[in-house]
Amino acid sequence: MSAGDTASDGGLALSPITTDTVRELLSDRRVFPAVPAELDEDAELVLDSLGLVWLLHMVEERYGLVVEPSDEDVVGLTSLRRLTAYLRAAQTDRRRQRAAEGGGDER
């Protein structure tokens, strides 16, 4: 599956990634085993490597977005707000790329 495409291509890639959706993804016990119900957006967040891999897998499955963060990117993913901003930026970049290729809109 290429970046930006979903398995069903049913429009899931058009759904915006929000703080609430990232919070929901984090609540999966395979990502973050003990995420607080009301995780503050700026609270320190420490994901282990397996949790991060599983989170990125879930982002790909749900949004059709393949994200391959650099080591520098990973170091900056220290809060819900920063993680959401990173994923939202990756989603926006992918939409722009698809629009430039003539394969979709730029929403």
Automatic annotation (TrEMBL):
Residues 13-91 form the Carrier domain. Signal peptide: none annotated. This is Carrier domain-containing protein.
